[in-house]
Amino acid sequence: MICTLGDLLLDVVVRLDAAIEPDTDAYGRTRVGAGGQAANVAAWAAALGAPARVVSARADDAAGRLVVEELREHGVEVAGPVVPGRTGTVVSIATPDGRRAMLSDRGVAAELAEVDPAWLTGCERLHVSG
Q1: 70 Cα distance to chain centroid
Q2: Cα–Cα distances in angstroms (integers) from residue 115 to residues 47, 78, 118, in the given order
Q3: What is the per-residue pLDDT across 9-27, written as a single tens digit (0 to 9) for each?
Q4: Looking at residue 37, which CATH number applies to its domain?
Q5: CA 49: distance to chain centroid?
Q6: What is the reported pTM?
Q7: Which residues of the chain fall short of a pLDDT of 70?
Q8: Which helix (H) or strand (E) is 31 found in, with range?
């Protein structure tokens, strides 16, 4: 099993059709789903057929439930504490010319202070987010 240790966040990806102009509407496409480096690595490992688990602090709010459900649908186990607060969010804005800006709020993911050894049981490899 591949285990990852790090952030479990809500990703909001915005792909703009044109550059943002002050005081006007901007149009584009959006996607919302599970994210954070640890969650993404675990999801890719599961997609490639490996058993995978992400270890992260998470909130029991609507965003936290959404990301956990999505990861489980992809075959990723989720371990770690559920703590009071809000799930972190990353908003990634991609412009038509290929540039990108990211706005990050780690929320409760930053509160993972201790790792219960049981969360790593069965792990053959461990990816730690940088």
Answers
A1: 10
A2: 25, 13, 8
A3: 999 999 999 988 899 998 9
A4: 3.40.1190.20
A5: 20
A6: 0.86
A7: none
A8: strand 28-35
